[in-house]
Design brief:
single chain, alpha/beta, Aspartate Aminotransferase, domain 1, 2 domains, four-stranded mixed sheet, disordered N terminus, binds pyridoxal-5'-phosphate
């Protein structure tokens, strides 16, 4: 049995066993397939705001928010109340069998927040992957074209089409054959690949590549959709150049291609705006949502221009649980809570504190941190050997997750090499808790690189 020592205990010389956590992981090993990822060694018995009490009663600061699901924090009181009240009224009917206002209230809120043109329609789903699956089905039927274009470094989920669109090989190994007519372009990843160009020149270069792509790989006349993340989440918080995304919008308009923006990780205040695409001054034809939409209840959404959403065959999209009433109640309360507490402003403050601290750490550890990047509170630092961005240091990423956990911080990595430390903390995190978490990261880096 391994012994995990927390910082306080270490200082006090009292090394304790985390017996309940050990017990949970032993059960997990017995009962759960090994292939299901273990991102951190943490456990939980209770959580509030940005703090988790683990199974042994230790307090942990949460810098992950259940992978971007808890922008409004763990258990916002109005959300918990709305869930409890709705659970006492009815749990399920299937919206197609007996319709209810809650679904329509969520749809109305989403249309208000994310108008996609003169008229917008909303399909609710259960997850991010399901939103992506349906977005592709809608785009293909509407355009009557087969090809879907996606990017290196992208992550769109784990169902068959979503896995086919997802880039990291580790998520795909042995899962083929994949869905056909999926084509992948190089993501315009300025931090890793700028080759001395300005960001504008770099965007032009990649837009030129897209033109060539239509010539050599698939005709624009066969392209149903281009799907893209404004900030790649799992891919390592790579921010798309503004000029490139605006160029994509133009190309899609020109050729009748549906532009799908995947907002599953970036949405609902994470970047300091309701939608990340608002930073780029574009509006997608279709967008996909999940995660923070309902504070942890399984809900997603496909939002799109009405003529596209209605341009498909009846019965080809749907599902038993779509827009479950308890999830809808949670979503309505979440959105209201986000407005009431000014969550976008909080995200901007949280993001600027993280950026300042990360930049200072980069100065202190120039041989280990090669880049600091992000948008709003979607911030990451990249760990590399000799501070060289082309030499990813995944071992240090892994060690950081473990060491931070031992000190009382839940942290996860991103990127194909697991060398990017990303912060997706609840945005309601109090400043002293945020600073403490950042202190723990800095201390861990100092110890691990000493
Ligand atoms: C951008 C993006 N799209 C889709 C998904 C898949 O969402 P889910 O895990 O809810 O299926 C994720 C999950 O991390 C994501 O980050």
């Amino acid at each position: 049995m391994s012994i995990i020592i927390t910082r306080k205990e270490e200082e006090a010389g009292q090394h304790k066993l985390r017996l309940q956590s050990e017990r949970i992981f032993a059960r997990r090993r017995r009962l759960v397939p090994n292939a299901l990822s273990i991102f951190t060694p943490a456990t939980v018995q209770q959580a509030r705001g940005a703090q988790v009490t683990d199974a042994d009663g230790y307090e942990l600061i949460d810098f992950t928010g259940g992978i971007g699901v808890l922008n409004a924090g763990h258990c916002p009181p109005p959300v918990v109340k709305a869930i409890q009240e709705q659970a006492g009224r009815f749990l399920h009917t299937c919206f197609g069998v007996a319709a209810y206002d809650l679904y329509l209230d969520v749809a109305e809120r989403l249309v208000e927040l994310f108008p996609h043109g003169e008229a917008t329609k909303v399909m609710l789903t259960n997850s991010g992957a399901e939103s992506v699956e349906n977005a592709i089905k809608i785009a293909r039927q509407y355009t009557r074209r087969p090809a879907v274009i996606c990017y290196t470094g992208s992550f769109h989920g784990r169902t068959l089409m979503a896995t086919s669109l997802t880039s990291k090989v580790g998520y795909r190994l042995g899962c083929g054959p994949f869905a056909p007519e999926v084509y992948r372009l190089a993501f315009p990843d300025y931090a890793h690949d700028h080759r001395g160009m300005s960001e504008e020149e770099f965007a032009d270069y990649h837009l030129k590549k897209l033109e060539e792509f239509f010539y050599y790989y698939v005709s624009e006349k066969d392209a149903a959709a281009i799907i893209v993340e404004c900030v790649q989440g799992e891919g390592g918080f790579n921010v798309i150049p503004v000029k490139y995304l605006q160029g994509l919008r133009r190309v899609c308009d020109q050729h009748g291609i549906v532009l799908i923006v995947d907002e599953v990780q970036t949405g609902f205040c994470r970047t300091g705006k309701w939608a990340a695409y608002e930073h780029f001054d574009i509006v997608p034809d279709i967008s996909t949502w999940a995660k923070s939409i309902a504070s942890g209840m399984p809900l997603g959404a496909v939002i799109g221009k009405q003529h596209i959403m209605d341009g498909i065959n009846p019965g080809t999209i749907g599902g038993t649980y779509l827009g479950n009433p308890v999830c809808c109640a949670a979503s309505l309360a979440t959105i209201q809570y986000m407005k009431d507490v000014g969550l976008n402003e909080k995200a901007q403050q949280v993001g600027s504190i993280i950026r300042q601290r990360f930049e200072a750490m980069k100065k202190r550890f120039p041989n280990h941190i090669s880049d600091v990047r992000g948008l709003g509170a979607m911030m990451a630092m990249e760990l590399s050997h000799q501070g060289d961005i082309s030499k990813p240091n995944g071992e240090l990423g892994k060690a950081m997750v473990q060491r931070c956990y031992e000190k009382g911080l839940i942290l996860i990595t991103a990127g194909a090499h697991g060398n990017i430390l990303r912060i997706l903390s609840p945005l309601v995190i109090e400043e002293h808790v945020l600073q403490r978490g950042l202190d723990l990261m800095e201390e861990s880096l100092a110890e691990l690189t000493a």
